[in-house]
């Protein structure tokens, strides 16, 4: 990989991060590296398509692919077409990114060919500079000329021509600034260029609301055009003077206005805002008439791609103003950062994998958003803009919040002018996911709180992991998002599948050129931040040694709080690394069969543990010698984590989704029917102790979320999941099996998707009677039970045809089958006991 020079302007930080070549034994890195190879082949093939290379030196640009079969046909656009050429710069942007990544001069040649026409020309008389600029001038400039400025070795593209293009296009964009909009000012998104010195707003006298609605597009601002402010900011950074100072101030004004009119209190967003003052149309002051979500499900819905554009745009606004004392003092810098954070948090919290399991849009492990976050659940009554207003208009007559109900066709029913939820799976938008991943990585880099920056980095990584999931042969699976199938064959011409132009019951689109562009940018930025934040040192050879022995590592330093540790020698020979004291690493990446002999010492992994092998050669990490191992996250693919007698603590952070479910699945894989030899999390110590006692169900690997007040691991901080060997039946991990554990099991009995601390001791799909039998067999001391407690447990067993006989030594029960007629009514007695003892079942998850 090659590294190209950076521009001295702010664009080097704001467009993207320079790519750095890294190789990790990490699952996501493997996916990213494979994706780079696939992208190089796909994009080069697209550049050579005859359909893009018209005669007379003209070029066309790929836009999107359509069809439900081969996904192979690019819809092309002409950059001189004012209405459809907005996305023309994304393809040359891809070529520049691939040139930077590969160093292959062919990509630079093609990038120059597709970048050169994207220059400003008022009359379009120059066939090589024929772009007709519109409200998308920022898009049309930054992705092509901005990347050329960063990476080209040609003075035409990294010098005066690039600067001139930015200045000319910024001048045009600034001409669309409307001081009166919303009383503060913003750039007009839609409508033809008029005399903006006097602002010739349309006159609405005599028109009905429905007529106004039919023409509102001429007076609309849309959130995606907030991305264009970067062109104004860059022009000012390149040549600060009185003219570009105006660009800078107008960009800030637009950003402030946008933060207030587009973003709701909960961080969600509107797509469009329309201006209209029905009380004084002749003296129009730019007040807001209405808001909506044109490409989403409903006005009070949230179009996921618009949400991603907003996250990206406001992180840009923060970047360009963060060192300006005036903007710091007037609160704008904080406004931009907080808005970007709120929009990113809303996006993340409403991704399918993070939804309640009862949602029709919930899919485990799916971090690609639906086209509208609210289509499944419907417009929510409590979601208002910052003025406390809602804009329900399900019947589409331009009158908001009417007391009307009816059917909205494919959008389902509406009540009080509000669309109710469809309650069905919503098609995804891979382009929105790619944009958000790039936005989060940008925010991660700029975020002054490094802990939050790490959070956005990891969330972006999860989104990328979903996007880079290879497709089945048909490409029609729910989570098949990547345009290469598992046999390494391309499915169509683009990189990503399942792009949705807008909300609909279905979508025929496959790839979008901008989704592919932001995918490459996110891949680039993720690996760059990884190299900057988590530099690794590698163990040299598959031989034993001490952690602090620098001669065993690839650099003079052993791993520590700022250095990660990689064990990926390529050997299949097991080896042991010994800790001589408490030790740490930023990341721990394992591709070998390595045992870390801790000798009672604690091991702290600041960010993540990655265990990644191949389908034919599993990677294995064994943690021996007791002690506590902590990490920010745990990622296992084709690998095994043997915790032996260790306690492992995953510190996922308060306010974030708990990984307890995925950890339970990994333990179930390692459990492997009680052999403790499968892929996932296992314990050779548990297996050996059980074998010595002749009881495969004596010990197991327990896990619990310390945030749950029911469990006894509160000595660990909230926001952690604890994994450790435990007696089967010890639901709350307090070291014994007693009546409290029975209560935990009973509270979740027959519920699906339960965890260890809900009484699911054999890692099944639910807590069931088998789990109760395991608990009863391992009960610590039946003599400690009072009569009511003993009756409760026995009645529970009898409700399922068994009875409990205490063992002679007081440890455990023998479960004796009885006739099934043994009283269901006894369950009622158990319920009465629970009520009498004032057991609060509400806190059990």
Q: Into which percent range does the helicity of residues fall?
A: 25-40%
Structural class: alpha/beta
Gyration radius over CA: 30 Å
Largest sheet geometry? 8 strands, mixed
Quote the distance from N terminus to C terminus. 48 Å
The gist of it:
It is built from 22 helices and 29 strands. With 845 residues, it is an alpha/beta fold. The strands form eight sheets. Strands 14-16-18-20-22-24-27-26 form an eight-stranded mixed sheet. It has a six-stranded parallel sheet with strand order 15-17-19-21-23-25. The chain has a three-stranded antiparallel sheet with strand order 2-1-13.
Annotation keywords:
6-stranded parallel sheet, 845 residues, 29 strands, disordered C terminus, 8-stranded mixed sheet, globular, alpha/beta
């Amino acid at each position: 990989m090659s590294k190209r020079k950076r521009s001295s302007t702010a664009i080097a930080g704001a467009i993207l991060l320079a790519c750095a070549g890294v190789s990790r034994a990490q699952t996501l890195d493997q996916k990213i590296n494979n994706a780079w190879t696939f992208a190089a082949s796909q994009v080069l093939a697209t550049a050579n398509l005859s359909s893009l290379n018209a005669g007379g030196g003209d070029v066309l640009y790929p836009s999107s692919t359509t069809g439900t079969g081969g996904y192979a046909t690019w819809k092309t656009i002409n950059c001189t077409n004012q209405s459809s050429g907005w996305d023309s710069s994304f393809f040359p942007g891809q070529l520049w990114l691939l040139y930077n990544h590969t160093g292959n001069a062919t990509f630079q040649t093609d990038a120059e060919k597709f970048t050169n026409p994207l220059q400003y020309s008022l009359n379009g008389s120059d066939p090589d500079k024929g772009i007709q600029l519109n409200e998308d001038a920022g898009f049309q400039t930054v992705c092509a000329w901005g990347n050329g400025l960063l990476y080209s070795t040609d003075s035409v593209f990294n010098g005066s021509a690039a600067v001139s293009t930015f200045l000319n296009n910024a001048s045009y964009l600034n001409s669309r600034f409307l001081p009166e909009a919303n009383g503060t000012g913003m750039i007009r998104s839609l409508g033809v260029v008029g005399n903006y010195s006097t602002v010739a707003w349309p006159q609405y006298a005599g028109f009905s609301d429905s007529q106004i609605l039919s023409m509102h597009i001429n007076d609309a601002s849309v959130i995606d055009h907030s991305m264009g402010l970067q062109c104004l900011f860059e022009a000012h950074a390149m040549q600060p003077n009185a003219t570009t100072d105006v660009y800078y101030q107008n960009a800030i004004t637009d950003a402030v206005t946008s933060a207030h009119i587009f973003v709701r209190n909960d961080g969600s967003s509107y797509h469009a805002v329309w201006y209209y003052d029905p009380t004084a149309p002749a003296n129009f002051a730019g007040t807001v008439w209405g808001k909506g979500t044109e490409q989403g499900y409903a006005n009070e819905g949230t179009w996921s791609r618009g949400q991603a554009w907003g996250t990206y745009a406001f992180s840009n606004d923060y970047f360009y103003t963060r060192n300006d004392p005036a903007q710091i003092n007037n609160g704008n810098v904080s406004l931009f950062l907080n808005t970007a954070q709120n929009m990113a948090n809303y996006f993340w919290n409403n991704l399918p994998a993070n939804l309640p399991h009862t949602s029709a849009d919930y899919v485990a492990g799916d971090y690609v958003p639906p086209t509208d976050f609210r289509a499944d659940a419907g417009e929510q009554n409590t979601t208002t803009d910052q003025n406390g207003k809602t804009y329900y208009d399900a019947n589409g007559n331009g009158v908001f919040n009417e007391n009307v109900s009816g059917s909205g066709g494919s959008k389902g029913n509406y009540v009080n002018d509000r669309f109710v939820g469809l309650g069905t799976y919503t098609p995804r938008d891979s382009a929105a996911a790619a944009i958000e991943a790039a936005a989060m990585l940008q925010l991660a880099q700029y975020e002054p709180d490094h802990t939050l920056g790490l959070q956005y980095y990891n969330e972006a990584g999860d989104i990328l992991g979903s996007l880079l999931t290879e497709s089945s042969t048909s490409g029609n699976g729910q989570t098949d998002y990547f345009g290469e199938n598992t046999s390494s064959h391309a499915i169509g011409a683009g990189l990503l599948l399942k792009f949705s132009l807008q909300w609909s019951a279905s979508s025929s689109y496959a790839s979008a050129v901008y989704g592919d562009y932001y995918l490459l940018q996110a891949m680039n930025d993720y690996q760059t931040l990884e190299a900057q934040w988590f530099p690794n040192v590698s163990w040299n050879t598959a031989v034993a040694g001490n952690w602090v022995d620098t001669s065993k590592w690839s650099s003079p330093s052993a791993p520590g709080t700022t250095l990660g540790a990689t064990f990926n020698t390529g050997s299949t020979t097991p080896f042991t690394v010994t800790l001589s004291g408490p030790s740490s690493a930023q990341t721990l990446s394992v591709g070998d069969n390595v045992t870390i002999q801790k000798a009672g010492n604690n091991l702290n992994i600041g960010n993540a543990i990655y265990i990644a092998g191949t389908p034919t050669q599993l990677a294995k990490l064994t943690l021996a010698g007791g002690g506590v191992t902590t990490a920010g996250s745990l990622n296992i693919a084709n690998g095994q984590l043997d915790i032996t007698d260790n306690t492992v603590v995953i510190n996922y952070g308060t306010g974030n989704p708990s990984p307890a479910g995925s950890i339970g699945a990994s333990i179930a894989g390692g459990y492997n029917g009680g052999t403790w030899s499968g892929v996932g999390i296992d314990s050779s110590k548990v297996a050996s102790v059980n074998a010595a006692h002749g009881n495969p169900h004596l010990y197991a690997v327990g896990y619990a979320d310390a945030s749950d007040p029911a469990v006894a691991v509160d000595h660990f901080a909230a926001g952690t999941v604890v994994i450790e060997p435990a007696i089967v039946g010890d639901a709350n991990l307090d070291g014994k099996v007693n009546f409290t554990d029975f209560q935990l099991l009973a509270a979740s009995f027959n519920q699906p998707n339960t965890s260890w601390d809900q009484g699911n001791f054999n890692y099944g799909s639910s807590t069931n009677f088998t789990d109760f039998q395991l608990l009863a067999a391992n009960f610590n001391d039946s003599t400690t039970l009072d009569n009511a407690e003993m009756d409760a447990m026995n009645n529970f067993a009898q409700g399922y045809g068994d009875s409990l006989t205490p063992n002679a030594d007081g440890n455990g029960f023998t479960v004796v089958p009885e006739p099934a007629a043994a009283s269901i009514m006894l369950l009622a007695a158990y319920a009465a006991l629970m009520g009498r003892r004032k057991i609060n079942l509400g806190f059990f998850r």
